Known about the structure:
Elements: H1 16-37, H2 42-53, H3 63-68, H4 70-87, H5 90-95, H6 97-120, H7 125-136, H8 140-150, H9 155-185, H10 190-222, H11 226-246, H12 251-264, H13 278-294, H14 300-324, H15 333-341, H16 348-360, H17 362-393
Amino acid sequence: MDPLHFLPAWPPAATPLGWIAVLLLAAIVAGESVRRYLRASRVIGYLAVGALLGPAAGGFIDNGTAGQLRIFVDIAVGMLLFELGQRVDLSWLRRNPSLLAASVLEAALTFMLVYLAMGWFGIGPVTAAAAALLAVATSPAVVMTVIKDMRAQGQVTERVMLFTALNTAYAVTGLALMVGLLDYESERPLTTMILHPLYLVAGSAVLAGVLAIVMLSLLRLFGRRPAFQFSATVALVLLTVAAATMLNLSVPLTLLLLGVFGRLFDYERHFVSMKFGETAMLFIVLLFALAGASLQFSGWMAALPLALVFVGARLIGKALPILLLSNASGLALRKSSLVSLGLTPMSGLSLLMLHEMMRQSPSLAAEIGAAMFLAITILAFAGPLAVELALRRAGEASEEAR
């Protein structure tokens, strides 16, 4: 018998829990360093650490380990989408229909400009539509995290959150409907092309409605204690992720609808203001770190022209309708320009959508995969800076954040 059998093997094999600890600690330190020394959003540090440790760069976290950590991404995205859905004030849209018009036109023009730009580069119609759908989405994780980080309040802040929620709804619903076209590309039967997207949209809505009723019933039974509401909400978010995955439904769409229905059905206002605390921020840090680890850095030079055109078309599409309808929606032109600047980010949600599209249609990865990863990378790092600049220029950041 080896007399030193009690010593660990060499090199020691790190467990997923060990990598969670390393990634979390490195991301927190990087985020605080970026905030303190560069006066920039902590999100930049979180993303940078993930990118450096991920399989495309340092390789400390391989694809298998990243896959094992996916549950933390689901928890973080779930809580953010739920909170975003809770913040959608449909009565505001009824009182100010110009806001809804600006949102719809912004999403439609963004989709059209990106679709035309992709066609100009010779990209096929279905793949171009997939890229255009990605462009519609604004990262709820970046927007919500920067707003909380800066404790921002005001007209620009509220409109950025509203447009982000609506863009997220358009994008995740569009992804569910896009599945039919991706099925067509993969030469699946006509029945599949029609029933698959209908199942995703209707099934996600029914599941979200049922779970929202369950959640409100629990709140009605046990009262408005914030600690209980936080625990119950996190449990319901996890149950939503598990149920939607088990039923092959759209996880992002179900989570967003859970938040919307939770507010819509809450006639007696059982919910207190849902503000996820410091514990939830650990999941948010991991979300950005793992989003950074998912970025790919190969084939960038060849993909650069298409990625830059994508970014340019997206920025123009989001800015023009908001600026044109600024007076009608009751906001000065300068502040409307800041709202459009706040819609710049793309990150975790877009990566999830891109991976889902590539899973449904492998040919999409070969045609635009590298360009989309590059575009998302550019906007993932530029987005937090844009949101922070918009909130500072609007004078809506707290004195402490300034």
